[in-house]
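Handout, section B. The chain below has 219 residues.
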Amino acid sequence: MQGRPDSVRRYFDRFYYSANYAPGGLLRRTEGLFRRDERRLLDHCLVLLARAECSSVLDLGCGTGTFLAALDAVMPLSLATGVDFSARTPDVARARLPDTARFRFELSDAGSCRALGQRFDAVVSLGLFDYRELSAEVLASLLAAAERAVVVTMPRRRMVPRRLLRATWLALHGVRLHAYAPRQVETLFHGLGARGWSCAIDVLPDVPDTLWLVARRTG
């Protein structure tokens, strides 16, 4: 994890599983404001992976397994691995998805997890790169682990009040919010010289503050 990994880990450990994150708590209301588009992103990704018939998935930054549970309900998975660096998330995810023959959860940093040495139909990361820099090395490792598709979301570099408010909120807790311009991500991808892959970087009309990177294997 680049930047201040301990600060990011403490943020999630302290707030997501504290009384402040209970319904009606300060953190639940604040994160709800910043993440109100999360369900739309998840729905877009469900449709994309279902169309691509991806039955094995690696979810980086899986949290408590929300995305994998939703995907499995739409299209039963043969194998799914979730990776998260918050010590409190794996147990919650395992309770949600107890079928250990199909679902595995790893406590690790996304850039060095064991799962990246395996192969999956798709590698997905919805929100991880809000807090971690998407480098060429990391993107190359995602492509190497994917047979069919890589889907990544990240904050769009825009000077809008909500993004500035979120960046300020996270900075108060020692956490940096990363943001990206479309050209920056395009240059990063093409700089890898990834043969056999096509890449689209879009802004979804109903989620204008988020960039959506979809890489598909073409050969």
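Note. The mean pLDDT is 83. Compare this with the example in section A.
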